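Crash report, auto-generated. Payload:
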Amino acid sequence: MTNLILQQCLNGLVLACNYTLFALGLSVIWGVLKVLNLAHAEMFTFGALAAVFAGQAGGFPLPVVFAIAVVTGGVLALIVDTIAFWPLRMKSLSVEDFELSSLITSLGASTILVSLAARWTNNQAVSMPPGVFTVEAWRFGPLVLTNVQVIVSIAALLLTAVTWWVVRHSQFGRALRGLAYSTDMAKVVGIRTETLYRATLFACGALAATAGLLLTILMGSVDAHSGANLMLKAIAIIVLAGSGSILGLLVGAVILGLGETVGTLFLPNVIQSALPFLVILVVLLARPSGLFGRSEAVRT
Amino acid sequence: MLLEASSLRRTFGGLVAVDDVSFGVGQGEILGMVGANGSGKTTCLNMLTRLLPASGGAMRIDGRDYGRTPPHQLIRQGIARTFQNLRLFKDLTVRENITLGCQARHRESEAALRRRVDALIEMGDLQRQQDLLPASLPYGTQRIVEIARALAAEPRLVFLDEPFAGMSSEEARGICDLLLGLRRKTGMALVIVDHNVEVLTGIAERLVALAEGRLVAEGQAAAVLSDPTVIRSYVGADV
Amino acid sequence: MGAEWTATLMLCGIYSMTAIATQLGMMCGAFSLAPIGWMAIGAYAAALGATRWMVGGFEALLIALAVAALLGPVVMLPVRRISGLYFALVSLAFVLVIQSVVSHLEYTGGALGIFGVPLDTDLPVVVAALVLSAAAAAFLSSGRRGRALRAAGQDAIVAQAMGVDVFRLQLAVGAVGAVIAAASGFLYAGYIGYVDPTQFGFSLVVQIIVMVIVGGRGSWVGAIIGACFITMLPLVLRPLAEWRDVFNGALLIAVVLLLPGGLVEMAKLTLRRARPAPAAALRPSLANEESR
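Recovered output after restart:
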């Protein structure tokens, strides 16, 4: 039993790395663009699908497959922006109006993309053909770890770390945080806001696609609804974290990842599947600003 | 005393926005509140209108503590207010905005409410604009609508948060005349927060000055405005 | 009238009720998706009443409505502490918890759901229920209450300063919305003949949001127009049925970008153009010209 628990802990942590990677992009978009981008999930799905189909076409080495996924995710993010968010930014709405309107347009974009993905895959799960990636299992005493798990975790953690560094310490990140604080202020100090918005969306789309590819390799397959299913978990993680805290994202992802793997051993099915939503409910009620978010002084 | 604020305090996280502020407002008195940006004026108003819970201190109206009264019940106690940034309901017409101001205090028929609002619309000279949406009105007119909405409930005490902001001195004086006329008629008390010291001293009978969340001076306008602490905290003000 | 049209009209009425319930929440500043959860509860009450509790349809309906009236305000409670999108998320969590609970409980038939709900719903019943729901919505959104409701929806803080008990209003809307939505779910189960968890998941949430937004935010009339429009369109334009989701998504984006007031706003504008405008023009653009 102890071994089983340990093994599930390990699996949960691997999942958590991936969740973090996915939630990270969502969180950055929310922070910078003030959009709760429900279509973020579709960058994940389309990135993974593009990679799988490229793999099935055969002949591409893994780096190329990876590049295809990244570009697909990034470009798709830009397309969604052009259709759903950019026109709203041009309208100079109040913050509340913009948040609600962009949530609804992103919902529209997401609906379209899920439906297109379902047609593209004939509503079937598709899987990476053998040969693109060979799975090897290593034993550490009673525990089993696959090379996939190791690579996925390291890649996810690395990308998270890089994103954190970029946001916190780079020139780009400084501009980004300025933009998150006030669009008008950023314009005044000479930040090209539109370019920055697009760059952010592209990067976040690419991150989501990467998460899609990694999770597909980990799980073996992907379908049109994979991203959407992950979306609710990602929202739960962001809510748990509070705005703008990457450490919070990690902690949130670990709680959810462990809940899902270790939880299967202890929790009844009913609670198990409702876990992300229960997390959202409980955290928002107890601490509206999240576990790691700062409560903001509200001016009336 | 109509209103007594004693030792009001408010912190935001570690930041002390208002600290140990006490003052009183008499029946029918007009009190001006001055202070630089960020000195805690609006925070005081928000606490005294119960929109923001106080971290400490007490507030009384007619000697009764109302520090735990929910904000929507203040209008029934005769306390009304306006807001620093115009906060008219953008999807309600001018008439609806004003009606909303009095419907909670005066629980009477729609027809009676209409007569009441008619009088206010006449007072503000808003007959032509009464069925328009606020966004279509010039700024000064919107201010008047907001004041009319606050006065609609026939309050005993009105807090006005920067009513003269963005107005010419002439427009501001027009509003002052309106307020003085109404006070003569109803005997209400006013607490006015504003940067326009010139206009404020013209209407206020007494001033309180805040600096960095503390009350630094109180009394006759001339005395308060010549107080060295006030001058120091109020750089660039037309004193 | 063909059977197909009767069926579509019944669906229009049922969805209109859920859309009205959702719209009421949006109008008072509580963007709650909870009505979809209440619809599920109403539908399961119909199914359980017929197959487990062994009570008549009317008794099952009463149980569902009573639960909704009592617990509807409870689900609305979080709005006191959190607002905006965060509250929408909490209400969405409620919907998904309900869905995942019914799909894992043996008592509710698990993922397969429950078959054999008596087909008791007919058009007159739906029309009567819709009229009652619309009357409740009209009552809430007219006169003194209506002003308070809209004020609460636009700026809760100022509304409070004006003496509106925003929270109590939202709780009342929580109760009314839950009752209307539970009734619509009950009728839905009696229309379709079975219930299963997939009927009341995220896709229904999307569907209802599309109806409310396309019809027009801020009025219960808009909710009905939107629900009928979205329900009937695939019937009128056959090819659309196949591309339904793509079309819904595109429509959602188009309306938010081009027609923020929805169909009801468009109808008003057309009417105003048809009749010469009265002296007091309500549109800001017209008013500007007038004041110049």
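Post-recovery validation: Chain A touches chain B through five residues (CB under 8 Å).
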